[in-house]
Amino acid sequence: MMIILMKCLKRPTQYYMRVLSTWHGRDVITILDFSREDLETLFTLAREMERYAKSGIDILKGKIVALAFFEPSTRTRLSFAVAALRLGGKVIDFGSVEASSIAKGENLADTIRMLDAYSNAIVIRHYIDGAAKFAAEIAEVPVINAGDGSQNHPTQAMIDLYTIWREFETIDGLSIGLLGDLKYARTITSLIQGLVKFKVSKLYLISPLQLKPRDEVMQFIGGSGINYYHTSDLSEVINDLDVLYVVRIQKERFPDPLEYERVKGSYKVSLEILKKVKKKLIILHPLPRVDEIDLEVDNTEFAKYFKQASYGVPVRMALLTLILKDSEI
Ligand code: NCD
User: Can you say whether the dihedral through the CA atoms of 176, 179, 181, 185 is positive or negative?
Assistant: First the structure.
């Protein structure tokens, strides 16, 4: 891997030693724990990994990654599995909660202790806020947060930032719009936390008032020094954007079904609204999509969400490599 990194980053050997030692064995609980330099190393390696995303490269031979998904997932679970397999590693997965001893009442701590003993890294998704942090306190092996409640989804944010970086060759100087359920979508919180590490020109928060980011996230944005603006009207700002990041309404996280009914269907990206766009704009979405982007938008040059999903494999290959590869020159 050292060779791969040296090929893509033209820096002295000590640089690689330092980079590799900061990544090795690390938990990934929130993107706040990663510096801009860490993220740029990840992106550089991910770009190299794109070449191996279909063919594979034996970097993690003998390593086992445990997948512990306590919530539904398609892309995150499969792309983590594919990433480990393409690197020559192996994957264990307890399947659904119903198929494991959790259905018999086993507690999370005991489940984590077992996965810790059986594997070299644990990828966990859980409906409870803070579950990944809790697991990391128990496990000796690295724990990777694949989504905890409405709090964090750091590896999705890494993919989102990578997609922007790939499309524009930079993140600095861009205007980024976040559209939709900014209150409950964990990808939004993690993406905001990642964006503030770069010199973003402007952050547009586009949502109905009820779906504004939670108070603690608004405080974080306010304290970060980022230039931001809130509006509920996409058409007012769409022509200022370089990136439009859309999320679905997180119906399952609404404490009150009536609150959901009030905002259901309150925003949509349509061909009509895109007619206003006069410059390069990319539309991203962590997926799954429900009804917030019209299907016709998929065939436009704006739509990059399927490309973004495909980057899940090389980014997670790079991440697993940096965390798990035993250091060597
Ligand atoms: C997201 C999630 O689970 O938070 N999905 C994903 O990992 N790509 C987004 C969502 O569920 O809306």
Answer: negative
* pLDDT tens digits for range 87-112: 999 999 987 777 777 767 778 999 99
Does the beta carbon of 147 sit less than 6 angstroms from any atom of ligand 1?
yes
pTM over 0.85, yes/no:
yes
* Ligand 1 centroid distance, CA of 62 (Å): 30
Residue 286 Cα: closest atom of ligand 1: 8
CA distance 92 to 29: 20
Q: Is 190 in the pocket of ligand 1 (CB under 6 A)?
A: no
Q: Are residues 9 and 130 in the same domain?
A: yes
60 within 8 A of 89, measured Cβ to Cβ: yes
**Pocket flag, ligand 1, residue 153 (CB < 6 Å):** yes
For the CA of 125, the closest atom of ligand 1 is 3
**Rounded distance between C-alpha atoms, residue 92 and residue 310, angstroms:** 22
CATH number for the domain including 224? 3.40.50.1370
User: Is the C-alpha dihedral spanning 128, 224, 26, 285 positive or negative?
Assistant: positive
Q: How far is the CA of 44 from the centre of ligand 1 (A)?
A: 24
Q: Which domain holds residue 76?
A: 2-16+23-151+311-324
The number of folded domains in the chain is 2
Do 285 and 257 sit in the same domain of this protein? yes
Reference 32, options 197, 226, 171; nearest CA is 197
Residue 116: C-alpha distances to residues 36, 89, 110 (Å): 29, 16, 10
Q: What is the pLDDT of residues 113-130, one digit of tens each?
A: 999 999 999 999 999 999
Say which DSSP state 178 is in: E
Please report the atom of ligand 1 found closest to the CA of residue 146: 7
